[in-house]
Design goal:
Strand order of the largest sheet: 2-1-3-4-5-9-8-7-6
Helix content: 25-40%
Largest sheet: 9 strands, mixed
Order of helices and strands: EHEHEHEEHEEEEHHHEEEEE
Oligomer: single chain
Structural class: alpha+beta
Number of helices: 7
Number of strands: 14
Length: 325
């Protein structure tokens, strides 16, 4: 894998307006990589000058399945990138809101707590932009993204007659299938001009069975046909779902989505051990998860009926708690 050559970005739009934006970005050489990395920007019309394998992302297939008004309509595709997240976060103010960057392979993907995210061919790797005004709800957007992924998978199964894949959410930002991790979400934000610029990155194992399992491996085990999930279908279904769920989230609050979220996550009634510092000692207590607090942390109740708010700690589900008095 040659990671030293300039990254090639193909700029694509669903409508004339987005295509014109792509032309301006190319003419002005506006898109950059962090740390001065070289970028070569090309238009969708220049695809025919290149030869890509059958596994390359099919932009037309994605665009034809997309039915949004804002999200996903401007797409940046690359066969090989350090990180899709770096592209959208570093160029946030240059690209349209709702723009998405997709890579067939990325070699510097990252997850929560500075973890590396393995990104082999067959994995759906994308990042997109959202802008928000209320800082209190920014931490909750990752839950809306999680829901949009699981709802997109259900939608594709229903429309295509696939066996139902029970993709579940592990708080705060992992996606599980049959007890194994198949995806993860990373949302970062910066504050500028009284608005929060949020970059959302998603990795989902679609056709790559390593390092854990993938959607197509589970589907194959459940089906007698050769049906498969396609990355393009999942990405389009994701944005179709996310735009709807995000409108509900912004206009009515996350409480409106909580029932759906709790049906999809892994933790209702789960009993967990939490650690609380007491002077120079660490005390362990068993609590039962009840749901989410208004700030997006876990709400739990102890055996003594005290309510507490649980916070994640690195890769562990939770090890810290704050007691509500």
């Amino acid at each position: 894998m040659d990671t030293s050559s300039p990254s090639t970005l193909f700029l694509c739009g669903k409508s004339f307006a987005e295509t014109e934006i792509a032309k301006l970005l190319k003419i002005n050489e506006a898109l950059k990589l962090p740390n001065g990395g070289e970028v070569s920007s090309l238009l969708q019309s220049e695809f025919k000058s290149f030869r890509f394998g059958e596994e390359a992302f099919n932009v037309d297939l994605f665009m034809n399945s997309l039915s949004t008004n804002r999200f996903g309509r401007f797409l940046i595709w690359s066969p090989l990138l350090p990180s899709t997240h770096d592209i959208v976060s570093h160029n946030f103010c240059e690209i349209p809101l709702g723009a998405v960057c997709v890579a067939d392979v990325q070699f510097k993907g990252r997850g929560r707590s500075k973890n590396a995210w393995e990104s082999p061919r067959g994995c759906l790797m994308f990042s997109f932009t959202v802008q928000m005004e209320d800082g209190k709800i920014v931490p909750l957007v990752q839950y809306v993204v999680s829901l949009a992924v699981t709802e997109a998978i259900k939608d594709i199964c229903d429309r295509n007659g696939f066996p139902c894949l029970d993709a579940r959410i592990k708080w705060p930002n992992d996606l599980y299938l049959n007890g194994l991790k198949v995806g993860g979400i990373l949302c970062t934000s910066t504050y500028k001009s009284k608005k929060f610029n949020v970059s959302c990155g998603i990795g989902l194992n679609v056709g790559n069975e390593k390092p854990t399992t993938c959607l197509n491996a589970v589907l194959k085990a459940l089906s007698t046909t050769s049906n498969e999930f396609r990355r393009e279908d999942i990405l389009a279904a994701f944005f179709n779902k996310f735009e709807m769920l995000n409108d509900i989230f912004i206009n009515q609050g996350f409480q409106t989505l909580e029932e759906l979220y709790y049906r999809t996550w892994l933790h209702s009634g789960q009993r967990v051990i939490v650690q609380e510092k007491n002077e120079d000692r660490v005390v362990e207590n068993v609590v039962t998860i009840q749901g989410l607090t208004f700030s997006g942390y876990l709400l739990a109740i102890g055996d003594d009926n005290q309510m507490c708010e649980l916070h994640p700690d690195g890769n562990k589900l939770l090890t810290q708690c704050r007691i509500f008095h």
